[in-house]
Amino acid sequence: MADLHQHQQQPMPRNHHETPSSPSTRQTVRFLTAATIGMSLLVLSGLTLTGTVIGLIVATPLMVLFSPVLVPAVITLCLLTAGFLFSGGCGVAAATALSWIYRYVTGKHPMGADKVDYARMMISEKAKELGHYAQAQTDQTTTAPY
Q1: Is the dihedral angle over the CA atoms 80, 84, 89, 93 positive or is it negative?
Q2: DSSP character for 146?
Q3: In this structure, are residues 66 and 74 in contact, taking their beta carbons and an 8 Å threshold?
Q4: What pLDDT digit, counting tens, does each position of 27-69 carry?
């Protein structure tokens, strides 16, 4: 046991050609590749920013000249898009509801059918109670002397 403990504490032999402070060739290549890619992306982002600013400088007078036409056109397009999306959503909801009703009527027991049956039963009971109450009120009113 003592032998095993002493064996674990012995340091591993190092390569005498490699010092701890010098990077390996692989690390150097990785760094140079990362630096090259980083600088390329930095140059591309600078060119993109420059192109955007130049485009904005060129387009600003055109936007000012055509703003009385563009602003209402954009508002109209937004309203049309919202209308079409709302209409499509209502169509999908209607198709889903009709599909559910068809499955319910044909007895395929769609999701939520139990709740519909329970609600129908409760409404029916309340309607009967209201009918009995109305009948009692009518009988009481017709039999009461003036």
Answers
A1: positive
A2: -
A3: no
A4: 888 888 888 988 998 999 999 999 999 998 998 888 888 888 8
